[in-house]
Every structure is written in structure tokens, then in C-alpha cells.
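3.2 Worked example (two chains)
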Amino acid sequence: MKYDVVIIGSGLGGLQCGYILSREGYNVCILEKNHQLGGCLQTFTRNNSVFDTGMHYIGSMDEGQVLNNFFRYFRLTGNLKLKRMDEDRYDIVKFRGKEYNFAMGHERFVDTMLGYFPGEQEALKKYSVKLKEITDSVDLFNLRETSFHQTGYLDFFSIGMDHFISDLTKNETLRNVLLGLSPLYAGVRERSPLYLPMIIHSSFINSAYRFIDGGAQVSDLLAEYITDNGGTIMRRAEVTDFIYHNGKIEAVKINGSEIIEGETFISNIHPKALLNIAADAPFRPAYRNRINSIEETTGAFTLYLSMKKNSFEYINSNYYVFRTNEVWEAQNYDNNSWPSGYMIHFSPSSENEKYTDAIIVNTYMKWDDVAEWADTKVEKRGPSYREFKRMKAEKMFEALERDFPGIRSKTDAWYTSTPLTYRDYIGSPTGSFYGMMKDYRDPLRSMVMPRTSIPNLLLTGQNINVHGVVGVTICSVLTCSELTGTQYLINKMRQA
């Protein structure tokens, strides 16, 4: 069978594109190499605890806010089990032993920070104004007609986050606290552009929510709607080759044999993985070289804790804990200093509001730390790898005990993942948490467009625009507008 649109990968971007286009009458087929859909939306259950693998909280879900508007179009608003996080401290940055609360709402955020930094009113107001300025510049935040080249925030792509914060205030502690959410974008002092952390922070400062019983409900609902619209979703269907004719893609080969034909193809997989599969595709050599030369963000080691029943009270906030003198140094660890910091998320359950049964802890881990097992596969990495993970888990528990005394004794079972896990399940070549790194010093090199030189091949996903739910959603709209027309699609979303 020949499809109007074939989508490679069922991450959030692929599913959203599948929903948009199937809703618009296109005959859509989504190909997913794994059994479970969703990419970073995937969850898994161990010891009766549900764990998210990538998406731990979402922002801007209050009525009239950007993600709420998008999710209404996707028929998700009102159909998700969500818990609004603590308005006074949805995020907590712990730096040099002291906790700093991040509050929802621009005024409340500034007022809360002034309690810690009473002489920094001007700096904090400038920070808040810049948050609004950048998000106001993003046309799709406001459902305005746009294109990738006219998304507004591109003006901020060539400004460094570190330069902005350094010019904002001379208070060293305030600088580090404002940079305290840097694990959300794997921030690098010398590279991180201003727009990336500001869009991410702005999304959460508007409103922050967690998924009750896990984020896979998003992928489950989108998949249901796609099939209701007549779309096809094929699991365990790994694209292994492309078939070309007259400079276009004619079909893809899945699992080495089956042929799937299409008019248009959308790739939701990592661009470097795409280039590896499409080795004979007529991409310009300069394009291949540029994509392959873009550095990857740092990967993560994740510790999943299944808690003893009614032992650990649910905390309606995230913690970002740093054991370094500067937030920017968190990735520059060695064996002795690891973990240099961590993020900890507490999962809400529909069965017990007072206690949590699942805790997720993320910390940086470089590819070099696991490179010796690069040629191994899931569940077949050998005893040395298992011992490596055990030792890292023990060090992680030591760090956790300093901030949450008794957490180890309240843990019933624990599980781990490394950059190898993310590589094999998510498809990121070196297990990077957030895909390819954006670099304000050379913005054009690290910018990837939805269009490609192959006329019927489009790209979507976290490597194209901004990672995170809001960023990926915006990219999905931009990708689909290449087929539907931008203004037409925006009007549809306004009317939803």
C-alpha cells in the first residue's frame, strides 16, 4: 500500500505530525522500531511503580497558555491526568547548601527571589522582562503565522546565556541560581544560546504540571486518535533503507525486507541516525558534513527508585542540586567528583496522594564513561557493565542521603539507565539527553531546518527546534505547515 505520508519514529514530534496530517485527511503511516510508542514519552513499570523515561513535567498548561492551546487542538486538554505543582516552589535549586524556590508567575517569581536577594530588584525584573520578550517573539506561542525563518526568537540565537546573566548582575550566587535549571538543556557556558533556556524557563514559570501515572498517556491518546482518523501505526518496524527515484524517496525498507511506499516522508529520528540509514540519499556533502559535525549534548545516568509503601511523602516540587562552585561546572566531573549534581523528580500516583511510590534521579554522564560497552546490546552488556551501574548507583545514593536522609532505607528496589540505554531506546547516537547541541557562537551551523534538499523529505523532533514538549510541538506545527500551509493550520488551531 502507498501512503500519503510516511513518518519514521513515534516520538512526540512524529505522533503530533501523524495526528495533524491524519486529521487533515492524509493517509498516514507511522513506523516505530520499538514495541512501545512515544520516544521520550515512554514509561516502564517495575515493582508496581510507573517510571517516566524522559518527560517529567510540562509547562504552560493553564487555560489560555501556549501548551494548553496546542493540546486542545490535539484533543489532549481535559483528557490527561495532571497534577499542578506547588505554585510557591515548583522547582527548587540547591546551591552551596542553600535552597532557592522558583515560584510560578512572573511577579511571584521576582518577589520570591527578592526574599533571597533583596538588593537585586532591577536584575530580577530585567530577567523577567527578557523571559516575556523572548516568548512574545515566538509567533507560534501566540498562534501567529510564521515560518522557521521568521520565528522571532532567532534574533536571540546568537546571544549567549552566560553573557546575558553576567551582564545582568554582579551577584555570583544569583547568577548561579538563575542558571540552576541548566540541566533542562544540558547548558554549556561557552555555547548555550539565550533563547533556549529562556523558552524552557518561561514555559514552567507560566504553570508547571506533572503527569499522574506517567506521561505515556500522551502517546497513547495520540496513537488512538491517529488510528481513529484512518492512520496506520506499525510497531517493531525499523527503517533500514531508503529507495529513491529521480532525486526523491519512493519508499522505505523496514526490517531489511518489507517495502513501504509514500508520497512524503517525515523523519522524527535523530538527523545523524537518518543520515546513517540514508547512506545513498542525494544529500549535499556539505549538509552531511555539517550535521555530522554538530556536537551532542551530554547524556544522563538515571536512578529509578521504587519506594516502600507509605514510606516517602510525595513532594510536589523538583530539586536541582549542585555540588559544584559554579552551575556551569556540573558537567566537568571526574571519577572522584561524580555526581556533581542531580535533578530529582517525585512521581504522583492516582492511588495515593500523600506518598510517592516512584522517584527519578538524573545526573550527567558522558559518553566516554560507557564507551567500552558501545558495541553491546540491551541486556547483553556483561557483568562489568552491571558492576559499573551498581557502583554508580551506590555513589548516587550517597549523594541523595545528604539531602534526603533515610531515602535509601525507604527504597524497595532500584533500577538504572545510562547513555547506552538512551542510545538504544531513543536512537540518539551517543545517548545524548537533548540531542544536538545549539551553539550561539555559530548559530547557522547548529540550526537544522524542517526542509531538506530531498523535495519529499521533512524533519521534525527535538533536534530541529527546541527540545521539550513545547519546543517539539512548535516544530511539529512548522513541519506539517509545509504540507498544509501555515495560516491554514494556525487558523485550525485557533478554532479548536
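3.2.1 Second chain
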Amino acid sequence: MSLSVPAIMKTTAARLSALYLLLFAICAVALVFYMTSLSARMLTAQTQDTINDEVAGLAHAYQRGGLPVLARVVEQRSRQPGANLYLIADANGQILTGNVQSLEPGVLDTEGWTERPFYYQRFGEGELERQRAQSSDQNGEQNTPQPNGADAQSGEKGHNAIAIVLRLPNQMIMLVGRDLGEPERFRAVIKRSLMLALGMMGLGGLLIWFFVGQAALKRIDSVSEASRRIMGGDLSGRLPVTGAGDEFDRLSENLNTMLARIATLNEGLKQVSDNIAHDLKTPLTRLRNRAEATLSGKHNTADYRRALEGTITESDQLIKTFNAILMISRLEAGYSSESTTRVDLSAAVRDVVELYEPVAEEAGVSLQANIESPFTVVGNRELVAQALSNIVDNAIKYSTDSTAAPAVRVSLERADGHIKLAVVDNGQGIPDDVDRSRVTERFVRLEKSRSQPGSGLGLSLAKAIMTFHGGRLDLLPGNPGLSVVMSFPERGEH
């Protein structure tokens, strides 16, 4: 997808790249000026120290022998190669000796350090200009004499230097300086290096934007396209994950997890709606028919009372069913208002077993509990007891068809980093793996359980409660019978 320049600048990648380039340019320019200024100050200070040493040596020579010795020392040093400058002139500025042929006008007028670098020419460097002047004379052109420094102004201006100007007691003028060619070349090298680094980093920023920014734009475009499909109602779509493990992958994985959760909740809502429409239709129809049959004939008070009592019983069962559906939905959605505390799981198990012992005895089922030591989890005691009650009630009901003496055993142990609460019966069980995975869904009742009372929500509620506690509910073959295992995290984290 091609974008115009204004559209590109509205993207996050382009803005970040532009901000990076701007900040780097500011820092780089500041660094160039700082390094250039620092190097200039350092080189200037070093040059001044060198000049001061030369002045001290010349002052010692002047004190030793006066002007003749000074002139002789200046003459000797002028013939030596190097960047130092030496000049002795009369009171009018006429150069008498030294290695300087011409100076920028006005240099000798002020005593002390020169305010700024000045240009000059050494002896022998003006030969080219003199040859050109002679050639002009031969061609008939007038050659007007020029003051000192004119040769430097015609053509090349010579070299730059700094110096100190001293006035001797006899009004003679002495100049001691140093050529700035080497320091200037050093500064030029530093400046070029820094500018080259600036250019390379700017190019690097552009390359980063082109490759990294463009890749980020493509990732964002793909996420936006997937988001549009999802907003259109296609919850089966998922955001792309490249496997790079970057921020986009983490965002996509989190959003995909959220979408899967939303799809699960929507599917659950659809199932609940369908189940309510099908499974609750029968008891409601039965209530209506009972009321209609009661009103259609002449009955005595006892008949009306029995009809009302049956209606109340059916209504209570419907209310329990609706409460179970509501609790399952809240627990699966993760916004249940139930509080969690430290729960003594051993005590909760003993209470449930004690509660169902009369029920088991009436059904002819042996109910046993094997609890070796206390176990503590973080959860809600009422919800845990509700889940265990549903499982124990199912185990008692479906163990009566055992070929041996019906028995239900409840055990509590620690294994594989979990606290496992198991309810095992010796009934016919659920041999089919598919049926064991379906039986925890809402309103699912197997064919052989149709004769038993119930709504098909007991195991669904237990599974939702275990999900709320960060655990899981497993249905395993008991050989014979069925083993229902509630696995709690050992530290109670959820």
C-alpha cells in the first residue's frame, strides 16, 4: 500500500525516525562545534606557550648582548626550519631581519598579542608574484609600487599565524609568532571527521526508517486489517505472529488469546441459549400442563394442595437450574463476586462426606474418606464444597449399578505440584473418551443417565469452579467406575 508523504509522516514509525534524526542532528552539530572550539582553544593555548618560550629565550639574549646579539639570534633562528616566525622592524614598520617577507597591514601597530590570526608570507614565497609583475612591465602595463603586504593580497594571501608584538627600548619592533597551518589542518580533519560521522549517522537513520520503519508499518497494517475483519464479526480471524518475539508478536499473542476467550464465551452463550430453549422447555411445559389439568376438573382441597406442592417443587428445581447457569457463566467469565481466602481443604472434604453419609447409606452405597494430613489452598470454601457435593452426589447415584458392592471413596493427596482431590466410584463409569470430554458441558446427559434425576449442570459447575481456582477437573477411568479428580495449585495461585 503506497502512502503519500503527509500520510507517511502521520505514522508512528516515521515520527519516531524523524525525532531520532532531529535529536541526533542537534547532538551531532553541538558536538561538532564543541570539539572544534575545544581543539581550537587547546591548540591556541599550546601555540601561545610555544611563543612565550621563544620570547623568553630572545629576552635572555637581549639582556646578554643587547640589540646586536638579539639580531644575530633572530637571524640564526630564522634560517632554521619550523613554524616559528621572527621579525625585527624599525619604528616605521620597515622589516630589518627575520623570516617574514610581508605582513597583513596593521599587525605591527598594536603591542601585545594579536587579536585574531593574520596572514603573512615568508621570504621566497613572493617570487612568483614578482615574476608576474615583471611580465606585466614587459607587456607595457604600469607597475605601481605597493606597500608591505600587497604581494600577499595579490593572488595568494599566504599563511595564517598568531604572534606577540614587542617594542624594544630603542623603539624597534620585534614580532614573535607561529604559523597556524598545522593546527588549522588538524581542526579541519576533526571537522571533516565529525561531519562525515554526522552524514553516516543520518544515512543510518534513513536506512533504519526504510527497513525497520517500513517493516513496522507493514506489521501495523496487517494488524489493522485483521482488526477490521474482527470488527466485521469474523471472530475466527487471528492477528499475524511472525515468531520474532518482538513487541508486535507479544501484542498479537495477547490479542489472539483475548479473541479466543471471546469466541469461547460467545460459543458458551450460544450453547446456553440453545440449552435453555431445549432443556428447560420440558419442565415449563410440564408445569403448564399440571396447572391446566388441575383447573380443568373439579377437585377437592387435597388435590389442589398436591398440585401446588408439585408446582412449587418443579419451580424450585427450575430456580436451582437457573442459579447454576448464572454461577457457571459468572465463573467462566472471570468476574465472579465470590471472595477467596485460605481454605482448609481437609475440613471441607470431611464436612461434605459427613453430609452425604446418610444419602449414601439410604442408597446402599459405602462412602469412605481417605485424608492423611491437612491441606490448605487459596479459594472460596462454599464454591469448593459445592463442586465436591455435585461430584459426590453423582458418584453415589451412578455407583448403584455396580456389579459388586457399591462404594465411593474420597481421597486427598499431594502429587505433581498439585493438591488432588479424587472421588472414585465402582459403577459402570464412562468408558468412552469422547463421552468423558462431553459430560462436563452444560445440559449434557448420557443415555444411561436419562433415568436419573438431574439437570446436567453438576459437572459443568464443578469444572467452572475449578477454572475459577486456577485448577482443572479431570475424568479418568476407575477400572471399574469413574475417577473424578479436582487438581488445585499447591500454593493456591490463580
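3.3 Remarks
The CA atoms of residues 364 and 399 lie 10 Å apart.
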